[in-house]
Design a protein that fits this description.
The structure is a single chain. This protein has 21 helices and 28 strands. The protein is of the alpha/beta class. The chain has three domains: 263 residues, 3-Layer(aba) Sandwich (Rossmann fold), CATH 3.40.50.12780; 189 residues, Rossmann fold, CATH 3.40.50.12780; 169 residues, GMP Synthetase, Chain A, domain 3 (2-Layer Sandwich). Strand 3, helix 3 and strand 4 form a beta-alpha-beta unit. Helix 8 packs across helix 9 and helix 12 packs across helix 13. It starts with a helix and ends in a 21-residue tail after the last strand. One of its GO terms (cellular component) is membrane. Belongs to the ATP-dependent AMP-binding enzyme family.
Length: 646
């Protein structure tokens, strides 16, 4: 089948009673079969047609991952339209930009919180005619005439479907593979996000090519908790889900994701690096709190697993003695940890969007988790390059997947060409022409190089700098990723000044907090924790370890521990947690200037908002620190990757 609707109805006909998706409500998993899924899509499509949605229209969805999200998406596509997703954490200008640019007339919103956002923006959205909500709690008394309940639209559509049973089939037959299926926002790290149009053919080709290197079997379990507005979730949950018959599970709440993940024990998983890093942090905290015997048993099991992983990732067959010892190590040390993380049944999993530390890669492979790096962009359906089984090199993002051509231009830019390259940016032909050339090559804007056929990504091409001391090329992102390889660093932003490289760091509150408790350091808030001198000493040693892996001209000279975490609501990072460097450079200009000089501290002024709606200005003094000398590391024992202790 060449469209998402065709895939859905074909699967409903072939496997009507198989579970297509399930959501957890009030602690109970509520299943939806493929037949029920298809029926609800038909009914909602009829209902949307009654609201005036037809070929070429765009409907927006604003909310967390729920069956209604995908029912809306497929229903709109049945009518020849497209869906644009809005991140559920988006506010104000972010929502306004997407809805205005896409000329949206109907928004399907999750609940009262999202409806309230839209009501506040309604006067600025003259084309917005209807808001459909699917969680009615708190909305019964709202008087706005443009509010409609999701189930009411379905009920009207069900009556129309009975009266005109063949009408929708005719509309579905008119939808072609080259029609736009979804519209995804780009990352928006340097400017407002653009809206990339992706066709049915683009997405289905990606799903088929990925399966050529990593087969996906019908019924594989997949837990959908990353925003469906993101290309990464559309890539696996929707495109691979429909093409290969995944069973999707939607957690009840963000607070229950880990518990729900363990209950489902998925076969397939995709998460950005921060999820894998947080899992490793969880293991570190638990192992460090365990007794002497458990720590040493896990340490032995990990070493055995690491030796086994070294064979598997290089495509070598381990010997019989190692396989026997590994079975014991897996039973007593590795399998219980995989079970606690919800990775007991995992067949393969992916990470992308940012580099992942080689140490984190090695940890999961030693644990028995087949974790792979992928590389791509929204404009190529999220994936073009991936690690292949038996040939994993952790410093790379892998090799091109089948159907994808990869080359490096004369000026070092990564170029990609495949059937998954997007149709273009919505209402922006100039940007489209800049992104794709007449020969079909996508100009990614990323700098990289090939290492024996494997792609190594350096950074955005515009962000590759030359050091004034020796003219060497370097990337702030490369340095930042080295810093974030530490389990104690959540975010890092590096700057090149007159006197060298400096950095603003944000702590990982879980791992640093656990370390502080073990070392009996009292603290109250994140700001208090970041101001503790022993914490600065801890980070000074971590930065020294990062400096040891960097050329002398790229080493961190001075750093500061920021008093707060970077927040997408403050525009400091994107909704996919990519740093907005221009915002940081402006907002913390005084801090950056002090880092580049010789001042021992710098004062910052921040606004504190309280729950009662009041706010207060506070002055905070940030101490500026230096890393310890690299030579001092020689006498310190190396901390194992699975522990926060030396």
């Amino acid at each position: 089948m060449s469209t998402f609707a065709g895939l859905l109805f074909a699967r409903a006909a072939e496997h009507p009673q198989a579970i297509a998706m399930q959501e957890k409500r009030y602690g109970v998993w509520q299943p939806l079969t493929w037949a029920q899924y298809a029926r609800r899509v038909r009914e909602f499509a009829h209902g949307l047609a009654g609201l005036g949605i037809g070929r070429g229209d765009v409907v927006a969805v604003l909310g967390d991952n729920r069956p209604e999200w995908l029912i809306t998406e497929l229903a709109v596509q049945c009518l020849g339209g497209a869906v644009v997703g809005v991140y559920p954490t988006s506010v104000g200008e972010e929502i306004l930009h997407v809805l205005s640019l896409a000329e949206v007339r109907i928004v399907v919103a999750e609940d009262q919180e999202q409806v309230d956002k839209l009501i506040r923006l309604k006067d600025q959205l003259p084309k917005l005619a209807t808001i459909v909500y699917y969680d009615p709690r708190g909305l019964a008394g709202y008087p706005q005439p443009y509010l409609e309940r999701f189930t009411d639209i379905e009920a009207v559509g069900a009556e129309k479907a009975k009266a005109q049973p063949a009408w929708l089939d005719d509309r579905v037959a008119m939808v072609g593979p080259d029609d736009t299926a979804i519209i995804c926002t780009t990352s928006g790290t340097t400017a407002r996000p653009k809206l990339a149009e992706l066709s049915h053919a683009n997405l289905i080709a990606m799903a088929e090519h990925l399966a050529e290197i990593d087969p996906v079997l019908p019924g594989y379990r997949y837990v959908s908790f990353l925003p469906l507005a993101w290309i990464g979730e559309q890539m696996l949950a929707v495109a691979c889900g429909l093409r290969h018959g995944l069973t999707l599970s939607f957690p009840e709440d963000a607070a229950t994701q880990r518990t729900d993940l363990r209950e489902i024990a998925p076969d397939l998983m995709f998460s950005p690096p921060r999820i894998w890093e947080s899992m490793l942090s969880e293991v570190q905290v638990r192992i460090d709190e365990a007794g002497w015997l458990k720590r040493h048993v896990f340490g032995w099991a990990y070493e055995v697993g690491d030796r086994m992983a070294a064979h598997r990732t290089a495509g070598r067959v381990p010997g019989v003695p190692l396989r026997i010892v590994h079975r014991v190590a897996d039973a007593v040390g590795l399998r219980p940890v995989r079970d606690q993380l919800g990775l007991l049944r995992i067949s393969r999993c992916y990470t992308g969007g940012a580099p992942l530390s080689p140490d984190v890669f090695r940890f999961f492979h030693a644990l028995g988790v087949n974790l792979k790096q992928i590389y791509g962009q929204t404009e190529i359906c999220g994936i073009a390059v991936a690690h292949h089984d038996g040939d994993l090199r952790f410093h790379t993002v892998g090799a091109a997947i089948p159907g994808t051509e990869l080359r490096i231009s004369d000026d070092g830019e990564i170029l990609l060409r495949s059937p998954s390259v997007f149709r273009g940016y919505l209402h922006d032909p100039q940007a489209t022409a800049a992104a794709t050339d007449p020969d079909g090559w996508l100009h990614t804007g990323d700098a990289g190089y090939l290492d024996d056929g494997h792609l190594v990504v350096i950074d955005r091409q515009a962000d590759v700098l030359h050091h004034p001391a020796d003219g060497s090329r370097f990337s702030n992102a490369f340095i930042e990723n080295k810093l974030k390889f530490s389990p104690y660093v959540e975010e890092a932003v590096a700057f090149l000044g007159r006197h060298g490289i400096t950095a603003i760091l944000c702590l990982d509150p879980a791992t640093v907090g656990a370390w502080a408790e073990r070392t009996r350091i009292g603290y109250t808030t994140y700001t208090d924790l970041a101001a503790q001198p022993p914490v600065a000493d801890l980070l000074a040693a971590e930065i020294a370890r990062a400096n040891a892996d960097l050329p002398a001209s790229m080493r961190i000279r001075r750093f500061v521990l920021l008093h707060k975490q970077l927040d997408p609501d403050d525009d400091e990072i994107t909704r996919t947690r990519k740093v907005r460097r221009n915002v940081i450079a402006t907002r913390y200009a005084d801090v950056i200037a002090a880092l580049d000089g010789d001042e021992p501290a710098v004062d910052v002024h921040t606004t504190v908002a309280y729950q009662d709606g009041s706010a207060a200005e506070r002055a905070i003094t940030l101490t500026i620190h230096r890393p310890i000398d690299i030579e001092k590391l020689a006498g310190q024992p190396r901390r194992p990757v699975w522990s926060g202790r030396a």
